[in-house]
Each structure stands twice: as structure tokens, then as C-alpha cells.
Protein 1
Amino acid sequence: MQVEQKEKLYEGKGKKLYKTNDENFVLAEFKDDLTAFNAQKKGNEEGKGALNCKISSEIFKLLEKRGIKTHYVETLADNLMLCQFVEIIPIEVVVRNIATGSLTKRLGIKEGERLPFALVEFYYKDDSLGDPLINDEHALILGCVKSIEILEHLRKIGRDVNEVLCEFFDRRNLMLVDFKLEFGLNQKNEILVADEITPDSCRFWDKNSKEKLDKDRFREDLGGVKMAYEEVLKRILLG
Ligand code: TMP
Ligand code: ASP
């Protein structure tokens, strides 16, 4: 699809969004910047943006193939993705298979323990509040969505994405520990998986060694961030 890049619409921590000559589409430019802990920790890894763009493109294509609607249209350059314009629902939907991160801190569940079922959590997308954990009633009171049915739909898509990705990564010797999804509404009021699905927004552990192959390498100063992202892409492309 032929589009012209227009003015910047928004700059986030991992991407810049640009308008195009068509109001139904935006361009997402994936940045090399890394942030953690609500941007209190900052870094940069040359080539990370291109790796994330490629990884997210492949995952969105896989989801589309499995009938899960996303904002993905096409990848136009190394770090440039054409997407449908969506209005982002201000909820981060986190799906967890294995306990780690904030879940172990909050509830004391043992690090590395497999959960009895995939846990879906909602976080209110507001950096000034530090993206707090919320329940359905909070989401309705905050006006994040209009009805409880939409929240149930988000939970269902979260579980569907989890099923597709767990199976996909398992065959590539990677454990999908947890991940975060964002959703948006397009002009036709369809709910689409939006934003990105990358090692910035997911946790991947090697199935055998349990080595971390995601942004935890940056969060925990483990080194080898780019190598880990390259390894994830390599395994995705195994076909
Ligand atoms: P958490 O254990 O820190 O709550 O993170 C759960 C998952 O969500 C993990 O895969 C990383 C992802 N995540 C984001 O993508 N953005 C965020 O701002 C946070 C806090 C987590
Ligand atoms: N992405 C968030 C930030 O930049 C938090 C995180 O992923 O740890 O602050």
C-alpha cells in the first residue's frame, strides 16, 4: 500500500506514530530506546527498533492467520510499520502463564511457578499513576470502556492470543512467561490488538536453560539485550 508520511501524532517510549495522507492509517516507527520502571531507567540499543518491528510484524501476521484481528497492515521498512488508525483503550491487558515480575512481588507466588490457568489482569494505562492494577469496576468507573461485555471480550482475546503464541513459541523452545497487550477501536468500531508484541512487552525464557530472552535483560542489567532479541527473531523465523 502506498502512503505518505505526514506529521508526528505521538511519541511513546518505544515508538513514534506518524499520520499519513489517509486518516485510516498511521505509521509506527520503532525506536532503539529502552525504558523500564516507568521510564526511571533509560537506555538505548542500536538495532533494537528494527528487531522489534520485525518480531511484532511476524507475530501480528500469525495472529491474523489465526483469525485474531490486529491493527497490522504491512511492514514498510526496517523499523516502519503501517497500521490501521485506532483509538487506544487505556487498559494494558497482561496475560501470565508463569509467576514472575510484579505478580511475585505483589502476591508472593514463587518465582518461576506455573500458574494453574492463564491469569488475565487489567492495568490502567496512565504513566502519572504508574499504570496501577485495576478490576472490572474500576475500568468502568474510569470510563476505559462502555460495558462489562467489552472487558470480557478483551479477556477472551487475551486468552486466544496466549493459546496461539504458547503453541508457536513452544515449538521454538521458548516459554511464553507473560505478555502485555493493548487494544484499540478502528473507524468501524472493531476492537483490534494494537501497539506491539515484542520482547519489550513479553517475557520469553529458553525452555531448557530458562535463560531470559527479553527486556528483563535490560531491567536487571544482565547484558546481551540485543543478542536476546536477535535470538527470539531467529527462532520465530525457523518456520
Ligand atoms: P510485570 O510483571 O512487570 O507486571 O509485567 C508483566 C508483563 O507485561 C511483562 O511481560 C512485561 C509487560 N509490561 C509491559 O509491556 N509494559 C509495562 O509497562 C509493564 C509494567 C509490563
Ligand atoms: N515499559 C515501562 C517503562 O518504560 C515499564 C517496563 O516495561 O518495565 O517504564
Note: The two ends are 26 Å apart (CA to CA).
Protein 2
Amino acid sequence: MNMSEFENTEKPPAPPVRLTSTREVNLSQEHKPLPKEPDGKEEKKKGKVSKSNKSFNKIKDERPNISLPSNFEHTVHVGFDPHTGEFTGMPESWAKLLQNSNISKLEQKKNPQAVLDVLKYYETSTQEEKESKYMLNISKPSSKSSSSANSIQSNLSEKFAALSKDLPSKQESSSPSTPEDEEEEESQPPPIATRPDKTKSIYTKPIETEDKPNGAVAGNKTDKPKKKKMSDEEILEKLRTIVSIGDPNRKYTKMEKIGQGASGTVFIAIEVATGREVAIKTMNLSQQPKKELIINEILVMRENQNPNIVNYLDSYLIVDELWVVMEYLAGGSLTDVVTETCMDEGQIAAVCRECLQALEFLHENQVIHRDIKSDNILLGMDGSVKLTDFGFCAQLSPEQSKRSTMVGTPYWMAPEVVTRKQYGPKVDIWSLGIMAIEMIEGEPPYLNENPLRALYLIATNGKPEIKEKHKLSPVFQDLLDKCLEVDVDRRASASELLKHPFLRLAKPLAQLVPVILAAKEAQKH
Ligand code: G5X
């Protein structure tokens, strides 16, 4: 018929491919709505990455045999002399980190507290990369910026000093594997690509010590059992009351690994009874430093089902291995799309609306996701958009309506998290704003900065600069302003944002399919 002929010849052009993609795609520059300046650093990044990723994966793979170091903590007191502009009593490892951070002397002098905050923070995140999941006790400065010589206390890991030299190489990484990588990645097909280590989530121990009469000195290792800390046996006991009985190996077949995260390995499988595809996250409990988080993830997600959330389906416990069965989305993550292609505003608005629907639902139910970023947005082949990985979510209650644990991924973190204030659901809105920047620019602000300096910049700059803001429609600019508002009370809520005029630009979800396919195509190369 005429019509189909017409459609064949006039097929819409393929979506523009992002030239700055770290995954090495080279296509014509022409249809780029939001070009980015070429970045010299990009090249440098690539070379190193595969190597550092490789060793990182290696560490992860061997994790089963490495027990977490314990009792390697000591307390340090750091002061700042405003006259000399020097920190006093700073551990050598911190000094080294700071030296490599590109945080200038002037910046240090301008905001020494921010420097100390982020140093402690960074300590934790690097710690995590070595140990995979990361429980560090970090005590908050007992009184913030009260004196010019701020005294802070923090626990240091013995390994810490060694970490600073790894930092520069922990740059980017999603570049295609070099031949030598192949054996490491054989079980990681495209849907979930590797990301730079520095885009991985971190979690630090709550700063509850500050409430203690004896202040932070009460020491962190002594108070570990405080607050309903459950024993391993109690954890298993509790899990047994939650999970289904039966052998999941008989209910699901054709398991194929699709991802490896801090908390476990993810497989795709077929549910025998229905023939549908599911994703299964398996976690070896003996390797999980924070088992309560896993129970939390299951309990919270079992109760909170929504079309814009990767829904929990079932769970099983096999000896000490926990299986969490959930919906499978075949379109890959939003990261794949933002790094490989350029989205137009209609597509960005559609993704924002879907994410805001998920957040409105969660926040109404007093749940904070705490790790909103493109990596945690999965796409269906029909263009559906769903929020995933609730491994760090927090269920608020009337007794505890605010949180202080430092959770998330540094580049996406709200200022109130970085500066260690009490925070609530609006941290997700800030992160959504950062994710919107990913959809515009391909990556979050400061990704090329030393991560430590990035944290400093979040703490001190507040709202990040958007490179070519004037090229965005006024309604989009306004939405970004409302997400990236430092003042939490003035920052919009999810329900408010759902009424924002920018969302009226949203295209039908089916129009996300071309960028999903383009991202998949780009990743093949
Ligand atoms: N394509 C899902 C998760 C979601 C709510 C409890 C964590 C990964 C990876 C992952 C890949 C999926 C899942 C589905 C695709 C993940 C989670 C989670 C929950 C219910 C469990 C990690 N790291 N997926 N489809 N990928 O590679 O919190």
C-alpha cells in the first residue's frame, strides 16, 4: 500500500548520538540539539578506565573471600588556622587526598568546614570502592563551624592512605572493553553497562553518636550494637518470615547474568509458570555488611507497588543466599540513553514526569529513594520508565521523619546531604534535577572534577551551572531551578512538580523507543 511505502522512505531520522559519550561512538555531529564542548580530558579517561575497572571487578569477584576489616579506626582531631590557611592535625592521608583534589588554598580558606565534611565523606566512598559496601563510622563534628579551629573527629581506616593514589584513575569508564577485558566481562551483556567507579553509591553509618551524652567520642566501634542492631541469626529468622517457601531454581529457568552491583548479582530469568521474563537479584548474606538494609528493601518494596517502580514480585532464601524476584525491563538504563544519545525536551519531559510519578507515590508513603540517578531508571522496550534499586531507601515514620545518614552517589547528592544536615524526601527532587542535567549534558555536573572537589563544590556552590541553559526552553529552565533549589523549603515537591508546565511538553512514551534503540546500537560498537 501507498502508505507503508511512504513510511518506509520517510522514516524518522535516528536520534542524535552523543559525541562525548564515554562509550566511544563516532557519528556525525549534525543533529545535535545540545552540543557539548569537546573535552580534552575525555581521552585521558578512556585509556585508564578499563584497567581500573578491571581490577575493581576483580576485587568484587573475589569479595567472597575477603572479610571486612574491623577495628581499624582511630579518631583524629583536625583544626584550621585561618591565618596560615593550613589545617592542623590532619592525617597524612587526608592531606594527600586534599593535595590531589584541586581544591585551591583559597577555596580551603573560604570554607574549611566544607573541606573537612567532604574529606570525611570521600574517605567513606573510597573505602566503599575497596570493600564494596561500606559501613564506616563517621562522627559528625560536635559543633559545626563553632570556632575558627574547627575540631572534627573521624574514624580512619588503615587502608585509607593507599586509596588516594587510586583516585585519578577512577575516572570514567564505560568505554567498550579492550580485548584484555573480555574475560572479566563475559557475563555482562549490554543492558547494564559499567559506569565509572565514582558513580557508584555509598552508604555511611548514621551519625547517631552525636545524640549521645558523651558526644562523638563515645566512639563508634563501641556503639555498633546500639539501636536494634540485629544478629545474623535474627536477620535470617526475620527473612524466613518474609520469603516464599520453595526452590526458586524450579520456578525460574534460563538464568543469565545481567549485572553485578554492590549488593548482589542480577540475573534475567523466565518464570516457568507464566513464561514471563523476570529479573532476580541474588545476594549472599554473609557478604552483606548491612543486612538490615536488605530486609528494608524487601519490606518497603513489597508494600509499595506502582507502575513507575520496578515492582517486587517474590523472594526466596536458600541457606544464606537471598533471591529477590522483580519485574524485568529490557530497555536498559537511562544512563545508556543519556551517555549515548541526545534526548529532546519532549523526551526529557516524559522521563521527568514518569520519575515524578514514582517519587510522588513514594513520598506520599514516606519513602525516600536516596539514590536517584540515571543508573537507577530502567526503561521498557515500549518506552516505559521505572525507578529501581531501593537498596538505600528509607522508610520515614512519625518518630523519625528526617534522616542524617549519608547515602547516595556524590555527584547527585543534595547539598543538605553533603553538608550533613538532617534531610527528608526532597533530596530525591534535587537528585532528579541532577538527573535532568544528565539528560541534557550526558553526565552530572562536576563529573570531570576530582570527586572530592565535586563534593566541595556541591557544598559551596549550591545550584550547579548548566552549560547552555539559554538553549533550553524557559519552562525547562524553571523546572530545573525548582529542583535544584538549595533551600529545602523552597525546593518543589514531587506533587508540585507534576503540575509544572514543562511536563506538558512530554511526548508519548513510545517516542523514547528510538533513543533506547540508538543507545543499544551505540553500545554494540
Ligand atoms: N533490566 C535491579 C533492584 C527494586 C524494587 C526490590 C538492583 C539491578 C544491576 C541491576 C539490574 C534490573 C532489574 C530489572 C533490569 C537491577 C535492582 C531492585 C529492587 C524491588 C529490588 C540492581 N545492578 N537490575 N530489570 N535490570 O545490574 O530494589
Note: Residues 1-9, 23-64, 127-193, 207-226 have pLDDT under 50 and may be disordered.
